Amino acid sequence: MSEKMSIGFVSLGCDKNTVDTEVMIALCAQAGYIIVNKPSEADILVINTCAFIADAKQESIDAIIEMAQYKESRCRLLVVAGCLAQRYAKQIRELLPEADVLVGVGSVSEIVKAIESRSDCFADKNAPCENALPRVLTTPAHYAYLKIAEGCDNCCTYCAIPFIRGHFRSREMNSLIEEAKELADSGVREIIVVAQNTARYGVDLYGEKRLARLLRELCALDGIEWVRVHYCYPEEIDEELISAIAEEKKIVKYLDIPLQHASDSVLKRMGRRLSCEEAKNLIARLRSKIEGLVIRTSFIVGFPGESEEDFEALCAFCEDMRIERVGVFTYSKEEGTAAAKLGGHISKSVKEQRRDRLMLLCATISRKYNASQEGKIYTALCEGFDNNMYVGRIYSQSASVDGKTYFAAQREVLSGEFVNVEIADSDEYDLYGRQA
């Protein structure tokens, strides 16, 4: 079936999903399919979906409906893969008959088999992580995500990820190092380490946490200049990890720590294991030991039973801790989760009002932090040219989720090149400067 047939991909959701899409693209290319970027040019369309919260599910459904329109012209096969397919296979079959083939989260490596047999594929979502799978990067060539584990065992009451992705399973360290070497050889300069909970890496395979050791191994690779860590659950951060981040020059002093709330009563109902005071102590310890540390976190507002006092406690926490990068989400009621059965669900209007209030507060904090960077010189990773300015990121700006650094230069600066930039101006999200 693959002879001269073209295939296009739509990737939705998180960066872990991005890695899965890159693996499927590589496997299809190896099987002889022609990879195309425009849906109108594809004989086969694959949508790698997300089903984390209501908005993500709706986006996935909309994408399926949109891509299904191409079946009226060129497209002969529509494949729905990923989290939505895993969680809602029966409903997709009943309500979206345009989908010809479904591929679950445990069957990423079976994409070619699913396409050529025109049959659904749902392997064990709790199977050990597969190693040495090929990838075709969909990110810019200078950075790549390195997914070090699958699934999650935290079982927060609001989250459906354990139902969808299965138990936490680490990848073997040797395989990760080999993949990182290949990425470096291909021109990648920044590795962004991801998983549902990166700080737990290694516990299931080696009986101990090994993220710190993995990070040090990544720093030893030629070609890799930046190593960045996302999704470190706060209760899993230990002294060994803190020391590695503080000591290794290649590890950017930036840490993504999902906190979710700062009211103890809400945290308890969420099934979180860290109190507000413990979170404050952790942040203080991190800042005291890692010079220049920038923290990114996410918060959920409107959780069932969240009072105005709970919300004010969250706002006070943000003001006290001055966290530089914050994402705010409204609570999404997910069937099958413990939180869905709780009383005290909050209206959409109140949830959105609280989200907007907290985002405004955090934007003010971010603006003040960015203003404090003016007059300083930082190394920026150039990502291109836009509107007569070069565009890049400094250490405090992660790909896709944070702002950019816009700068002028006296010479041509290539994408993927590191250059020193003096910061001259800023707003709540972006920095502006000139080559130093």
Number of helices: 14
Tally of strands: 18
Q: What overall geometry do the principal axes of the alpha carbons give?
A: globular
Which residue ranges are poorly predicted, with pLDDT under 50 across at least 5 consecutive positions? none
Rg result: 22 Å
Cα separation of the termini = 55 Å
Mean pLDDT: 96
Give the helix proportion (percent range). Answer: 25-40%
Describe this structure in words.
- By secondary structure, this protein is an alpha/beta fold.
- Helices cover 34% and strands 22% of the residues.
- It contains 14 helices and 18 strands.
- It has helices at 15-30, 54-68, 83-87, 89-95, 111-117, 161-165, 173-185, 203-206, 211-219, 239-247, 264-270, 276-289, 308-321, 348-371; strands spanning 6-11, 34-36, 44-49, 77-82, 101-103, 143-147, 149-150, 169-170, 190-194, 226-229, 251-256, 294-301, 325-330, 377-386, 389-393, 405-408, 418-426, 431-435.
- The strands form four sheets. The chain has a six-stranded parallel sheet. It has a five-stranded parallel sheet with strand order 2-1-3-4-5, sandwiched between helices.
- Helix 1 (15-30) links the parallel strand 1 and strand 2 (34-36).
- Helix 9 (211-219) packs parallel to helix 10 (239-247).
- The longest helix is centred in the last third of the chain and has 24 residues, at 348-371.
- It is globular and about 55 Å long.
